[in-house]
Design a protein that fits this description.
- This protein is an alpha+beta fold and about 675 residues long.
- Helix 1 crosses helix 6 and helix 4 runs antiparallel to helix 6.
- The termini are far apart.
- The protein is built from 23 helices and 14 strands.
């Protein structure tokens, strides 16, 4: 009983001494929620918004999806409470005092953790209720507002707990407050930094490297509560997946167990030392040195024009010696110990060279990766672009059918066998054929391989387009392929009607909105266009030149998987053979010219970037005003507004047209079709 009374007394006294912490957090939440809410509502109401728009905007504000105030409060409060709550461990006098009390150390630890959580939750909840009062006063408090803000409260509390425990862990591992704060930073961002370094190594040494959400990348990045916090942000309906709660609570429980164990094992004399645990401190030093030495070696390798291995080794040696010396001085507090524990420096250098050697030699066959067709569950192929949205069920079904197609698999085998290799030159990195010869037309092909268990592998193949053009274009004869590259192909009726805007873009650069006030009519038009898009053949791509395109803008709330706008600005091209689409546009008084006319062009400016046209560091610019020459060059031009990714263009030549209009002139940029540039 005496112990319980004393424990309560200690917590009470601790709260008195730390009252400035919850007071500061209370002030922050007061400014972020009720005060900001009142100011924001005044702005909304003065802007003549509808009641529904005001309710939605205010809900986003107090749920933290409109402004970053709650995010900053969560992160800042975790650092503040973690450091202030356990800074006494870094003072010998305070440590001796607390450990001399007739109270079990476990109770001291758990009591402080509970206080740290309460310092955040109580001020947050009070100010959230005040924000509700503001909503009541303005007559906009609704059930949806309360539900979303409460879910946001629980979500913020979960990730506050994770970040707070990471800070506590850093304070337990160190013996000085400043080192503890730096340690919290290291623990928070070590995983993401290592992930970035591995991605940098892949991009540097692999010919087919493509970034993607691999399991290793996800694990390393999610080791940081900050990155996990950002990655797991709920959608605008604030539906938080159950696995987020499960993984978050399990991670919090694991951190509490680790912190509790370290607190019990932490020696009282650790206060004032750089690291509280000697052996564990050396392990941490080794891991940090490996990270820094890896960065140093990669930096010196990439900044040299030809990717010199000599400079790489120099970077490893320089980074290893310098950082090891810095770490030793910090650990020992003595400049004379700058080269102490040299075995750690040697181990970090050897580890770094081993890791670099694995990437440099492609020991695990990254560039040659291709699952057996029987093990390939799905495949996605993007030419001249990257997949940007999470496939829906219909897209997944099409990707599975493509994986089972022998012709598609044969194309993949060719990509793996004949992809271009990276060669470092004085001018930078070049892509060349396997025999070392230079490819004239280079095109990137992004591939996602899907295997059992939901595993995915990402690759980016640079190929000689002259060699693979026909094979890649033949994919367009497959309906299944179109479903994997055009989100419009598998969009539901609700999705079509939910598009915020559809604009028609002409080769002259004009943008014309259609069916702005009629979502149903807009959806019917898109069905007409989609039917002709799905029937488009490789022959159409080969022979016809686009006369326009559709620019689609989708709300993320309405169409999951779309971001602010359509992922590929030039995906939805309109061809002369799309007769029904053109007829529907004609009914809306939208006429698309099929070619550029000389009478509309005031001048033509040709920019020639080719090395053989002028000095390597200069641009040859030529303005053409002669009407005969203008008529000669126009048939070779394709407006960049309506360019096809499958067309071959003259590398190193851009053309600017000055178009005459009624009242003002404007410019449009064009590309030149390969082999059609006339002599001027």
């Amino acid at each position: 009983m005496k112990s319980k009374i004393l424990s309560f007394s200690i917590l009470k006294e601790t709260t008195k001494k730390q009252v400035w912490v919850p007071a500061l957090i209370m002030l922050g939440f007061f400014l972020s929620l009720p005060v900001m809410g009142m100011v924001y509502l005044e702005l909304l109401q003065s802007g003549h918004r509808t009641e529904a728009e005001i309710i939605e905007a205010y809900t986003r504000l107090i749920a933290g999806t409109r402004f970053p105030f709650l995010t900053m409060m969560t992160m800042g409060s975790a650092v503040l409470t973690g450091v202030s709550g356990f800074s006494w461990l870094h003072s010998k006098i305070k440590t001796d005092f607390y450990h001399s009390l007739p109270v079990r150390r476990e109770k001291l630890f758990l009591g402080q953790v509970i206080l740290g959580i309460a310092y955040f939750m109580v001020p947050y909840l009070i100010n959230l209720l005040l924000a509700y009062v503001v909503g009541i006063v303005h007559g906009i408090l609704r059930g949806g507002l309360i539900w979303m803000s409460l879910m946001s409260f629980l979500y913020q509390c979960l990730f506050y707990l994770l970040m707070y425990l990471v800070v506590v862990l850093a304070m337990l591992l160190t013996g000085k407050v400043v080192v503890g704060v730096l340690g919290a930073f290291v623990l928070t961002f070590y995983g993401p930094v290592v992930s970035l370094l591995l991605q940098g190594l892949g991009a540097t040494f692999f010919d087919t490297y493509a970034s993607g959400e691999t399991l290793l990348k996800k694990v390393l990045e999610r080791l940081s509560p900050v990155v996990a916090y950002a990655a797991c942000q709920p959608d605008n309906s604030f539906k938080i997946p159950g696995k987020v709660w499960a993984i978050g609570l399990l991670a919090a429980a694991a951190l509490i167990v680790v912190c509790f164990f370290l607190y019990k094992k932490r020696p009282s004399e650790a206060a004032g030392r750089t690291m509280a645990f000697g052996r564990l401190g050396r392990v941490i030093q080794y891991l940090m040195e490996v990270m820094v030495v890896l960065f140093s070696g990669l930096l010196f390798y990439t900044i040299t024009s030809r990717g010199s291995l000599g400079w790489l080794i120099f970077g490893v040696l320089l980074g290893g010696v310098l950082f090891h010396g810095i770490m030793e001085v910090i650990y020992e507090g003595d400049i004379r110990r700058v080269m102490g524990h040299a075995w750690i420096m040697g181990a970090s250098m050897v580890t770094t060279l081993l890791v670099i050697g694995i990437f440099y030699g492609d020991v695990f066959g990254y560039d040659d990766y291709l699952p057996a067709q029987g093990k390939l569950k799905s495949v996605s192929i993007w030419i001249g672009g990257d997949p940007v949205s999470e496939p829906n069920e219909e897209e997944w079904a099409s990707m599975e059918k493509l994986a089972a197609d022998p012709q598609v698999y044969e194309t993949l085998q060719g990509l793996v066998k004949d992809h271009l290799i990276q060669i470092a030159t004085g001018e930078g990195v070049e892509h060349r054929r396997q025999d070392g010869t230079k490819a004239e037309e280079i095109r990137g092909v992004s591939v996602i391989y899907g295997q059992s268990g939901g595993r995915r592998a990402y690759r980016e193949y640079y190929v000689d387009y002259d060699q693979y053009r026909q094979k890649l274009m033949a994919l367009y004869d497959s309906l299944e392929y179109k479903k994997t590259v055009y989100p419009l192909a598998t969009m539901s009726e609700a999705g079509l009607e939910g598009l915020e805007q559809v604009e028609v873009v002409s080769i002259m650069g004009s943008y014309t909105p259609i069916f702005a006030e009629n979502p149903q009519a807009r959806a019917e038009f898109l069905k007409i266009y989609r039917a002709e898009l799905m029937q488009m053949s490789a022959e159409t791509l080969e022979k016809e030149r686009p006369v326009g395109r559709l620019a689609l803008t989708a709300s993320y709330d309405t169409v999951m998987g779309w971001m602010a706008s359509d992922p590929d600005d030039n995906a939805y091209l309109i061809y002369p053979s799309f007769m029904k689409t053109l007829a529907a546009l004609s009914e809306q008084d939208v006429e698309l010219p099929g070619e550029l006319h000389a009478e509309d062009v005031k001048s033509v400016t040709v920019y020639d970037y080719r090395e053989n046209a002028s000095r390597a560091d200069a641009v040859q610019e030529k303005e053409i005003l002669d009407r005969d020459q203008i008529e000669k060059i126009l048939p070779a031009l394709v407006s960049t507004e309506c360019r096809s990714r499958f067309m071959e263009y003259e590398d190193g030549i851009d053309v600017m047209l000055e178009i005459k209009s009624k009242g003002y002139d404007y410019n449009i940029t064009c590309l030149v079709r390969k082999g059609q540039m006339p002599k001027l």
